[in-house]
Each structure stands twice: as structure tokens, then as C-alpha cells.
Amino acid sequence: MDEIRIRAAVPEDVPVILALIRELARFEKQPDAVVATEADLLRDGWGPTPRFGCAIAELNGAPCGFALWFYNYSTWEGRAGIYLEDLYVSPAARGKSIGEKLMVEVARIAVAEGARRLDLNVLDWNPARAFYHRLGITHRDDWLPYRIDGEALKQLAKRG
């Protein structure tokens, strides 16, 4: 019987987290998109002002997945929420409910901290959409994601 463990990430996990992020980028067909470094993750996850939380999934003692989130804020609710940036399970560990266990852990953290919602984005082609639906996470047709980054963000910041 496989032993599955979900635990809070610690600074020593940073190399594993970065390796899993790179695996996720390959899965999402963006293998060269990751520019984050171990120093970035260490600073932003365990520095003086932590900017994200992370849980590690282990299968038989070996890391095989992670969930990484950060807090957002609802002005209407007057409460913080959690935005799940990444949820990933390595291919060899899939089909063992590890993704569900990671989602349950993030939901528990959200509830324990008084968050009223948990938000995430999923690529339209990702088969994990069915997984999220099974957990009761619904797709919202009434909101469209927008983003500005890179040079466009810098140009906007320069406007008078």
C-alpha cells in the first residue's frame, strides 16, 4: 500500500519545488517560461515577508507534487481569500488521489484562516478541469481573466 503524506513545505524543499514548477511548465507546453530561481522562492516563501504558502505531497517518502498559493482580498466580503497559483502532481504519482489531498489541505488552510473563497485558473485544454469539477470547483463564465505584464506593464507604470 502506498503511503501518501501532505505536509507544509520547508526551506529545504526549495530545490524540489523549483523542479516541480519546471515539470509543470513542460506539462503546460511552456518549458522555457520559468525564470524563478531557488533564491526567489526562498526569499518569497520564507523571508521576512512571506508572499506564498506551499504544501508538498510525498508518495512513499519521495516528493511527487505541490500546491502553492497566496492571499488575495475581497473588498465585498471584507475577508482574505486564497488564490491557488499551482497544483501539480508528477505523472508517475497520478491516479492515487494526491491532487485531491493537496486541494483538501489548501481548503483546510483557507477555512482555518477565515478565507471565504479559493480561486484558481485552469488552462482550457487541461484534463484536470474534470478533476476540479468533481471537487465542486466551478468554472465561472461571467468573469474573464485579464493580465498585463512585461513591457506593457512597464509602459503603463510610466504614464503620467
What is the CATH domain class? Answer: Alpha Beta
Rough shape? Answer: globular
Work out the strand percent.
Answer: 15-25%
Terminal CA distance reads 63 Å
Uncertain ranges = none
What does the model show?
This protein is of the alpha+beta class. It has one domain (about 5-160): Aminopeptidase (3-Layer(aba) Sandwich). The chain is about 35% helix and about 25% strand. It contains 5 helices and 5 strands; from the N terminus they run βααβββαβαα. The chain has helices spanning about 15-25, 40-45, 100-110, 130-135, 150-160, and strands spanning about 5-10, 55-60, 60-75, 80-90, 120. Strands 1-2-3-4-5 form a 5-stranded mixed sheet, with helices on both faces.
Put the structure in a nutshell.
Helix content is 34%, strand content 24%.
Draw up the topology in text.
Layout: E1 4-8, H1 14-27, H2 38-46, E2 53-59, E3 62-74, E4 79-89, H3 98-112, E5 118-120, H4 128-134, H5 150-158
Parallel strand pairs: 4-5
Antiparallel strand pairs: 1-2, 2-3, 3-4
Write a concise keyword list for the protein shown above:
Aminopeptidase, 5 strands, globular, alpha+beta, five-stranded mixed β-sheet, 160 residues
